[in-house]
Amino acid sequence: MTRRDLLRMIGVAGGGALMYQAMNNLGFAAESPYRRASGLQGTGRGTVLILGAGLAGLVAAYELGKAGYKVQVLEYNARAGGRNWTLRGGDEYTELGGHKQVCAFDKGLYFNPGPWRIPYHHHGVLDYCRQFGIPLEPFVQVNHNAYLHSPDAYGGKPQRLREVQADLNGGVTELLAKASGKGRLDDMVSKEDREILLEALREIGGLDKDFRYVEGRASSERRGFAKHAGGGADGKPVFSKPNALAEVLQARLWAGLGTNEQQEYQTTLMQPVGGMDAISKAFVERIGHVVTYDAKVTAIAQDEHGVTVTYEDARSAGQPRQAKADWCVCTIPLSILSQIPIQVSAAKAAAISAVPYWASSKIGLQFDRRFWEEDEAIYGGITSTALPIGMISYPSHGFGTKKGVLLGSYTFSTEAFEFTALTPAERVREAVAQGATIHPQYTRSFENGMAVAWHRSPFTLGCFGGWNDASRAKHYADICSMDGRIVLAGEHASYLPAWQEGAILSSLSAIDALHARAVAGGRS
């Protein structure tokens, strides 16, 4: 099997996001190519309608406004940001089906149901944070003291990530050391390199002087001690006993380790202080006067002279209104846009309808005390579990304070659909029940929660565009191309699906194409 065949299979099975992650692992995908532009060349003249005030729409409005265009933004919600969204106490949210939730989090607590972390190499997001003075803080992705868990492993007892990682590394490096000692690697490494390899294996795996992964100081310094070093007469540490490699392999908890090695999740990750919506709020501070909220787009038409968009009040059945402009940047998710009459080429219309959106669900849970810190010394990071809740993420801020909000569940695909067959209140209860198998404190400390299912969100109908290799080859160019006076933008028009960086890069590419066409007098 060639690497290309492998990537194609990953893309077909798991969509563009997984394929991009696999490309990162194989060295085919680079970090974000964003470089701050010096400004659109030439003076922008004319008017631009921007549909959607998510990050792609906000970037387009901000940059085109600076270039001299007169812009108007139509936004379905009563707020800007789109999936860049933070829920706080008092916020209301109604999903498809009419289930309304009112957030009851205490003041100062919040939950990001959409984007919740920023990789260090997402230069576009970070540059706008820098330009706008948005303070950032570390987001803890990997915490060696968090858990890996499966009801089928170790009697259902959660295992510390550091223990699983150390035992896997130790067992594998011991095997390699034994193979090298028996000459089975002689045709692969020189004698000189073999000695260097053995020293590397000893260091990486925590092996003893005889290249064994056994109970002792070297292994305990990696997996943790049974009794930690202390002071006084009883201060001597006690070594922990490693699990045998066969046991580690059969437990299959190692499956939760691979994500941490992917470039998207490598240290350092960051988050805005106080909630991810600090980014969209910073844009609104600069261009908010051009945004019309509660505007539900119902039709998009164009001719050689301009674009006409029909919209109505998203909260009441009022008279349809129209907005006109010379150009249009449409950032409406394809899951929504495919249901709106739009006057574009047959190829572009087919492309808009060709991209399904992934199902995803998140649940935020407030507790009356931060038991994960007080009882278990977990400060940030993620516990992965084979239970349907998928994962638990501990807040990377507010260490040492009284209360906190956990990301109590993050699911995709089948698990997300199963969760959202329940009402939001039932989803919250189920997340508490499942989480209690890992943290028994759940049942005593839980106070309230919020459940957001992206495929039941009326403004997205899904989490992100589910490209695969075949659909990109057939439709991606048509999604990104300028069609008359209309150009599309959003994470779906990027090779970074589901990421804010993809939305930003696609928007910058779209407005460059629009500006070039405008400067050329509308000619192709």
Q: Any overview of this molecule?
A:
With 524 residues, this protein is α/β, with parallel strands linked by helices. It has helices at 3-14, 16-26, 55-66, 123-132, 161-181, 191-205, 217-223, 245-251, 278-287, 334-337, 346-353, 371-374, 413-419, 424-435, 442-445, 469-480, 500-519; strands at 47-51, 70-74, 87-88, 92-94, 100-102, 110-111, 118-119, 136-139, 147-149, 159-160, 269-272, 291-292, 295-302, 307-313, 321-325, 327-330, 360-367, 381-385, 391-394, 404-412, 446-453, 486-488. The chain has a five-stranded parallel β-sheet with strand order 12-2-1-16-22, with helices on one face. A four-stranded mixed β-sheet has the order 10-9-18-19. Helix 1 (3-14) packs antiparallel against helix 2 (16-26) and helix 3 runs parallel beside helix 9.
Number of strands: 22
Q: What does the main sheet amount to?
A: 5 strands, parallel
Helix/strand-derived category reads alpha/beta
Overall mean pLDDT: 92
**Largest sheet, order of strands side by side?**
12-2-1-16-22
Quote the distance from N terminus to C terminus.
Answer: 42 Å
Form type: globular
Helical proportion, percent range: 25-40%
Number of helices: 17
Which stretches are poorly predicted, pLDDT < 50 over at least 5 residues? 3-29
Residue fraction in strands: 15-25%
Radius of gyration: 26 Å
